[in-house]
Amino acid sequence: ISPKIVTCDFKDLPGNILNNFLKDDPTSVVQMETLAAGQFLLLPQSFGNIYLGETFSCYVCVHNETNQPVQSVSIKADLQTSSYRIPLTTQQNTAPLMLDVDETLSDVIHHEVKDLGTHILVCEVTYMSNYNTLASFRKFFKFEVMKPLDVKTKFYNAESDEVFVEAQVQNITSGPIILEQVSLESSTQFSVKSLNEDSDGFSVFGDVT
């Protein structure tokens, strides 16, 4: 059972009070305080979808469950797409370690996803076997990167040689999205004027909540 995580944006009324409580929790992971302890113990083979532009975060942990130390333990984590492979873990450039009984080796990885489609997180653990030979095993975790927004445009050519552009932005995710800014960046041959506000600075669409 995962504990309840209560957090909010720093601009909200509680400010940073709730987030500071999470940071002081002994079960929290650094830079991943909003991830409950029960949620980072195991990553399922397919854990759902993530949207383009979001940051994929993962806690990778190797635990020595044997009754003897394990030599030369190292972690490697890569993110594989249909066209490239990205190394993610910060442990790849460190020397292999010895894990005593019940000891763990862990790493927290973050990556902003910039491509749509299927992504596969490849985790590989290398260690020294009882026969003094290097051994390794891999785990694969697949997820889909989805498109969060759909943009449709319409162009109107006026007799005054002006071009009117209408853009419809649709949220196609399963939850709400807050748009901080929507703007049109034109080429140097055009000058752009927004028609979303009247001369008094009020939105032509009325009050938006």
UniProtKB/TrEMBL annotation:
Gene Ontology terms: cellular component: TRAPPIII protein complex
InterPro entries linked to this entry: TRAPPC13 (IPR010378), TRAPPC13_M (IPR055429), TRAPPC13_N (IPR055427)
Domain Trafficking protein particle complex subunit 13 N-terminal: residue ranges: 3-145
Source superkingdom: Eukaryota
PANTHER family cross-referenced by the UniProt entry: TRAFFICKING PROTEIN PARTICLE COMPLEX SUBUNIT 13
Domain Trafficking protein particle complex subunit 13 middle as annotated: residue spans: 149-199
Species of the source: Coenyra hebe
Name of the featured protein: Trafficking protein particle complex subunit 13-like
